[in-house]
Amino acid sequence: MPGYTPFLKFKQNEISAMAEFANARDDDVIPFFDVPRPKDMSAVDILDRLRIGVKQIEKQWSKSSFYIDNFDLDDSIQLNGAPQYQYILDAVKHLNAIPVVALNRDASHNGAALSFAKNSGRELAIRLTQEDIESYKLTKPSIDALWLQIENIEPQEIHLIVDFRVISSDLEKLKGVALNFITAFSGDFFVNKIVFAGSSIPPVITSILSTNSSVSIERQEWHLWKRIEGLLPESVAPKCGFGDYGLVSPDYSDLELEVWLVQGVAAPKVFYTYDTKHFVVRGGAFKTHPSGYGQYFDIADALVAKPFFRSFTYSFGEEYIFERSVLAPVRAKRGGSPSSWLKAALVTHITFVVDSL
């Protein structure tokens, strides 16, 4: 059965989290990176995001495989005069990138992905959303047309990504939709790997908790996967695997972050994954809280006191949290930043999910 596929943003801290995990573990985890939506949807900002991400990949993930897509972007925006996805793929052509085709994208998107897969001789991924899988009968003609193009390039492998994004619908209904689609699809098309992915994290954190509070939320994507996994046809089950969006909402964009910073209400928030849940803790606004960024020390204390907190030896993330807690022999001098905490928490999440599969 395929391993875990974390869906991450093509950003420094999330790439670094994957590298920290890989440095400690031998598990075969292939991340799926989406180039993040910048605060201004302009070519200049997209190019800047891409440049930073590529530099980080070259530094920490140069020999390992990863998927890359531009789902979050307006792909009609050209980059330096070239079609957007073509430019993105050209920027990572010296790396082990896996291109992604999809339905209902800009006309140039699939052509760029197919050309890249043909020239690289590598794998090719097909990304379908919940809307795409709701009716196999309606979607099949589009898949048929795409499949003819795929067969012409003879990729090394074909991977199907079923992306539910933020899961808000009834799990039983989604399970039925997914199983019906996969059963019908597998009867007509062959793929080497199938990934079911989703998230329970909304784009705006205030919808699940206020400042200076904490809450545990169920990981609906995990529950959905377990329901699907147990009912997959025997011919399909061995090639199916689980994916999620780590600790960042699929609908995250730098625009929301910019608004929070301008309004002066940005506050520390930390996710910690355990059992079938995310524990989420949020402090007060950095700008007005007496402790400011020092609130991360209090968050570390709260986490290490929880019965579900794992040993500081479990991963880079647990060690990072422990070192900022009252339990550390010598407490870290600085509490950290949103970026460093996301990296640490993401390492704990990836490690825990891999161990849970």
Automatic annotation (TrEMBL):
It holds the Pfam family Beta_protein. InterPro entries: Protein_beta. It comes from the Bacteria. This is Beta protein.
